[in-house]
Amino acid sequence: AAATLFSIFIWLVLPTIRPLVAGSIAGAIGVGVAYPFDSIKTKSQALAARGEASRGLFGMFCYVLEDEGISGFYQGVTGAMLGQAVVKAVAFASNDWALTELSGGVSPTVWQLIASAMFA
Hints:
The protein is mainly alpha-helical. The chain has four helices and no strands. It has helices at 2-49, 56-68, 77-103, 110-119. The radius of gyration is 21 Å and the shape is elongated. The two termini are 37 Å apart. The model has no long low-confidence stretch (mean pLDDT 88).
C-alpha cells in the first residue's frame, strides 16, 4: 500500500513540482546575474539627481566597489529574488501545463510551443 501511494505521489506531484522548482531557480539566478547592473544604474541615477557628473559604467562600478564593497552591488536583492522566483515558478508551471494539454503528451508542434509560451 505504501509503495502504491508513493508511486501515485511521484506520478501526480513530481511533474508539477519540477517546473515550479526550475522556475524558482531560474528566476533567482536571473536576478542574481542582472542585479549588479541594475544597482549600478540606480546609483548612477541617484548621483545624477544630486547634480554629480556621470561616471560611466566602469567608473560607477569602481566607485561602488571602493565605497561599499561587493555587497554594494547586491543591497536589496533578497526581495527581488523572492519575487522573481515566484513569478518564474508560476510561468514555468503554466507553460508546462499548457504544453502538456495542447500536445496530448506527444512531441509538440511549433504552434503548440508558441501557444503554451503565450499562455505562460
